[in-house]
Amino acid sequence: MKKNDFQFYISGAFHLGIGFGIVSLLSRWVTGNTILSSPETLIKYGLTGGIGYSLMGALALILFGILAKKIRDRFHDQQTIGDVLRERLTPGGYWYMISILLVISIHSIFVQAMGAGILLHMIFPWPVFSGMAIFLLFCFFIGGAGGMQRIHQLAGINVVLIFSAVIIIPVYFYIQEGVYPVYEGIKLYHPYILYVKNTEAIWFIFTAILIGFGQVIVDRASWQRVFIIQKEKLRMTFTLAGLIWATIPLALSSLIMIIIFGRSYDSIYSLLFELVGKINSTLLIVLFILFCFSSISSAISAELHATVTLIIKNIFDLLHPLSNKEKWRYTYIFSGIICLFLLIIVSILPPNPLELLFFFGNIYASMIVPMLYIILGNKTLPALIPLASIIGTAGGFAALPIVENLITIWISFFISSLICLVYFIYNILKMKLSYKFSKRY
Q1: pLDDT of residue 61
Q2: Boundary of a domain, candidates 324, 358, 392
Q3: Residue 73 belongs to domain spanning
Q4: N or C: which end of the chain has fewer CB within 10 A?
Q5: What is each CA distance from 357 to 215, 277, 293, 408, in whole angstroms?
Q6: Of 325, 341, 358, which closes a domain?
Q7: Which residues contact 386 (CB under 8 A, 6 or more apart)?
Q8: What residue intervals traverse the membrane (predicted)?
């Protein structure tokens, strides 16, 4: 495959084995939301919530890995989630799903950029606008203009930095402070963190797993990796990636416990800044900063690449067939527009990553069963199946004034599932009646 071919931009030069497939998935899923929401979850829901947050990502990747083999067997000639949707849906259903995927894509990239903005504000004395401009320019050259090959070139470095930070820094602190003093300090000042019979935390865990699986099953970047990882190694790759990913939020939670033991704190987000202040080693400070920005930049680059691919391959090329040169030109244009949009929005809006994640939780939950129907079904599906997700989402948001946020996510899931189930039963009854009628006459 030639490097100036747009297919090279989408898929890179080669198929991935287990090792590099895990690296590629981790560089996509260790994100700014992981870094910032892990401590927030620990503070709000205690150790049970911190463990639940780890389970969310692990189970989401493992469950999607089970589907990945089926996807490759059925849609082996495709490259993106948009290609699969086009094959399985009517035109109306296809364009609806593409619209939803674009909204989800922008939201997902925005959450990562928001995390970068928070970290820039905490660690460096620069204005957020100038720091974000440099950061997004880097992401533009990697994910927007560089394509899958450039993302893969940096994925190994990203994962090395991630695991160096989450292993070396906690060990450094626990050698300095000791495990028992940390436990006693948490028990004295923050005993709620050690309370494991928190029913609210259990409810959070199940809801987080639902949202996590919904995120992965509609994630454009993960779908692209399904088509570039060797087919016989797909399930093992996703399973191992999920198990390894689960260790990262746990390591981050342990860091937060080291910071807050024996004292109170002012702000959840200031805790990471205080971590930088507590590290006496310049080398470890540099390692922590590189870990944060490497994680976020790799996630944004993967999302940016997948979103631009979706726009060009599954929207513009269908509306007006493009030449190879035009596809490359539009790649730079749309990547630049998205990065500029992120720069402006992140500089204006106040941050709250966990609330942003759960605000879109209704959409992620309501997409699960329609996507399963699309993947596992045998016939072209009507617009009702993708529309079930918007009906479920609307039902969940409508319930917000009377029930709490986590319950509305389940309402969205059950409404969407019920619509798909009714359609499934209707099809079975219709087939049986048709068979009986043809047999009689």
Answers
A1: 92
A2: 358
A3: 6-358
A4: C
A5: 10, 28, 20, 14
A6: 358
A7: 89, 93, 96, 97, 100, 370, 374
A8: 12-30, 50-68, 94-120, 126-147, 154-175, 201-218, 238-262, 282-312, 332-350, 356-376, 383-403, 409-429
